[in-house]
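Practice set, problem 2.
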Amino acid sequence: MSTTTDKHNERIASMTFASVYPHYITKVEKKGRTLEELHQVITWLTGFDINKLNDLIDEKVTFKTFFEEASLHKNAYLIKGVICGYRVEEINNKLTQQVRYLDKLVDELAKGRKMEKILRTE
C-alpha cells in the first residue's frame, strides 16, 4: 500500500459529490441493495438527512465542502480495510480518508454485508 500524494488529495478534494453519487447508486443497486440503504449509510457517516443530501447534490459541492459540513459519526474510525488500493486507516490526509470511508461503506453495502456491520453497531 502506498500513501496518497498531494496531487491525489487535491483531486479528491475538488471532485463533486454529485459526480460520484450516481456511481454509488449504480454500484449498490446492481448488487440488489436499495437507494434507501445507500442513504442510511451516507446518513450514518455524515449526519446528513435526505433533504441536506439533496441540497448538497443540487449545489454540486466538492468533497471538501461535503465533509466540512458533515458531522462524522463517532465510530467512523472503526472503518478499516483496503479501498482503491489504500488501507483507509493508514491514509494521512483527513479529507481523503473521509472520502475513502464513504467509498468503503458503499463497497461493503454492495458486497451484501449486513447493515449492522456496515454501521459498526456490533
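Problem 2, part (b): a different protein.
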Amino acid sequence: MDEQTGTNNNCKESAGSSICEVLQILGAKWAFLVLEELLKGPQRFNQLQRNVSIVKTQSLTDTLRHLVNNGLVLRKVFPTVPVTVEYSLTEKGKDFQTALLEMDKWVQKWGNPALAGQTSVQSS
C-alpha cells in the first residue's frame, strides 16, 4: 500500500483487473468520501474540509489533486484576493454516483447494524 496516495501497488501487477483499474482512477482511500460530499454540490476547500473532518488537510489535498488529475473533479480558481478555489464533480465524477448508491445499498444490507443510517449517499 502506498502511504501517500492510499493506493495498492499490487494492482499494477494485476493488469486487466477492472477493480484495480477503478482503484487506480480513484486513487486515495478518501476518494469515495470526497466524491460523496461533492455530489451535494460545488464546495470550497475549507467547506469541504469541515464536511469531511475525518480527513487530514494533506490527505484531502492529495485526494483532490488525484481526482482532478483523473478527470473526476473540476478545480476552478476565482481571481479574488485571496484566491478562491472551488471543487465540483465533472460528468465523469457525477456518473460515479450510481456506484456509490449501490455501495450504500450493500452497506444497508450487510454493514454493521450499529452504524446503519449514519451515512447515506445523496440521490439527485
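Answer key, part (b): The beta strands are 43-44, 73-78, 84-89. The chain has six helices and three strands.
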